[in-house]
Amino acid sequence: MKYTDTDIEQLEERGITTEQLTTQLETLKKGVTYIDLYDAASLEDGILQLDPSEQKKYATLFESRKDSLDLLKFTPASGAATRMFRFLFEFLDEYDAEKESINAYINKKEAKDLRLFFVGLDNFPFYNKVRKQLKKKYKKKKCTNINLNRQRFVSIMLNEDELNFGKKPKGLFPFHSYKHHVSTAFEEHLFEGATYADKNKKARLHFTISKDHKKYFEQQFEKRKEYIERKTGISFSITYSYQSKATDTIALDSDDSVLRNSSNEIIFRPGGHGALIDNLNNQNADLIFIKNIDNVVVFKYQEDVAFYKKMLAGKLLELQERSFNYQLKIDQNKDLKEAKITEITTFLQNELSIKIAEDFEKYSASYKVIYLKQILDRPMRVCAMVPNEGEPGGGPFWIRSKNGKKSLQIIESVQIDPTNEQQQSILKKATHFNPVDIVCGIKNYKGEKYDLQKFVDTNASFITTKSYEGKKIKALEHPGLWNGGMAHWNTVFIEAPLITFNPVKTVNDLLKPAHQTK
Fold first, then answer.
1. 446-483 burial, b if ≥16 CB within 10 A, otherwise e?
2. pLDDT (tens digit, 9 = 90+) per residue, 158-213?
3. From the CA atom positions of the chain, what is the Rg in Å?
4. Alpha carbons 103 and 214: distance in angstroms, whole number
5. Which pLDDT band, with edges at 50, 70 and 90, does 458 fall under?
6. What gap in Å lies between CA 509 and CA 51, rounded to an integer?
7. What is the pTM assigned to this prediction?
């Protein structure tokens, strides 16, 4: 590809090299290599199921040690709420109250989402706000036509010159309605963070957001800070970061040419949540809790959710301690006795679900130690996995790399060859899926931070179909943050109940019990 002067300026402004752009272009044209699934992880193989006494043991372990640890709650929160209202935008575009009733439209379009929305209308946390705006706008035009009133309600919600909900950051959208106020997802993360992420009554929270939204998050925090700190007894330190422009990626037009605008400038797109490995890499903490912005619950369920977070953290601490002790012993005495080598090997196999090399027993004693140290000396994560009930999202699988090595990974469906029946049959076997509920250890036994970029599988990029000005395009995304972005971490999966997974992907999800206070 020949680069114009304008192209070079665009690249320099973003901090992207021509070599990186050429690699992106080649990847988009050549296509990505699909993951080779070996099997679905299960409770019998790869997912740990703890009984209540074990759960309590690990939660208690974390509680006993947390005030000696630097803790951080890391929340990806850059998304706008647009996709929550996709079916409502479609309704506004297509519906005409003068030509048909809403029921007729729903039946004709088989619009189940729209039916549920109107059935639950007064249970949404934004209902009173929209009604107030509606009355203000139409106070001189009182209308008894229920179809027109409902159309106006949706219009007030979404129109850019009205409440413009679709352009709000999802984190600042009204999520829960309490007796005296309506809370946002951002606020609920503060309350949740106060239940497990504090050290000596101070909680550190980090949000990855759009730069344009920073002032709104800061305003929301200042508005609610005194109330939340008084209710929780916890003070908060809030930091923000943005997805770097250097992680933006290109897309291809229908003719496989680089997507450009009317001025012939390259269209760059955010490189997906995998770009946030940079943001995570810039954090410094002993334990980092990761959870998406839309996965929150109303206050009455927060202690239940916190218990399982503590359980994950306690298990991580136990595993880290054993791993650190083994690494220390190796560094102090590389001539380990065979019994200790066997002990470490058993730990890796039974506790970290590591598949040891098939010819391991043929290695010399000294090389066995080197091999084991390389495996131990990695960042560690403990991930919740919830029973599969048909929710979209990635899941836990055993995969096979090009050299035949098997490992536990979180895999998205887009990484799996849709034409391969054998691979698709493994996908359908999945009993659990990934709620993005992760506790991370990013330091080695000496307390030094790992460079997380060294543990990314750079070949695990995504190619997705998107739209631009009404036409289909091929877009490139970096290896997902908890997919290829953490591919070479030591990984443990633990079953958690569905109460820990309550995302709001569409506005109707706010009608589910975990988001209702009544």
1. eeeebebeebbbeebbbbeeeeeeeeebbbbbbbbbbb
2. 999 999 999 999 999 999 999 999 999 999 999 999 999 999 999 999 999 999 99
3. 25
4. 41
5. confident
6. 30
7. 0.94
Kindly report which listed range (339-343, 389-393, 427-431) carries the lowest average pLDDT score: 389-393
What is the amino acid identity at position 451? D
For the chain, give percent helix, strand, coil, nearest 5: 45, 20, 35
The secondary structure of residue 32, as a DSSP letter, is P
**Per-residue tokens: 367:** 């090389």
- Sequence-distant (6+) residues with CB within 8 A of 263 are none
106-160 pLDDT per residue, tens: 999 999 999 999 999 999 999 999 999 998 888 766 667 899 999 999 999 999 9
Question: What's the CA gap between 365 and 375, in Å, rounded?
Answer: 16
Integer angstrom CA distances of residue 79 from 72, 128, 207, 293: 21, 25, 11, 9
- Asked if residue 495 lies in contact with residue 387, where contact means CB atoms within 8 angstroms, the answer is yes
Q: Residue 179 and residue 237: Cα distance in Å, rounded?
A: 27
Burial class (CB in 10 A: 0-12, 13-18, 19+), 13: exposed
Q: How confident is the model at residue 309 (pLDDT cuts 50, 70, 90)?
A: very high
Three-class SS state of 203 = strand
Give yes or no for a contact between 427 and 418, defined as CB atoms under 8 angstroms apart: no
Candidates 160, 213, 220, 215; CA nearest to 184 is: 220
Measuring CA to CA, how many Å separate 349 from each of 34, 160, 302, 345, 491? 26, 56, 34, 6, 12
pLDDT at 466: 85
End-to-end CA distance of the chain: 60
* Mean pLDDT of all residues belonging to the chain: 93
- In terms of residues, how long is the chain? 518
Nearest by Cα to 79 from 212, 210, 177, 236: 210
Say which residues have a Cβ less than 8 Å from residue 32's Cβ, sequence separation at least 6: 415, 459, 460, 461, 462, 463
Strand segments (E) across 126-246: 174-177, 182-184, 198-199, 202-208, 235-241
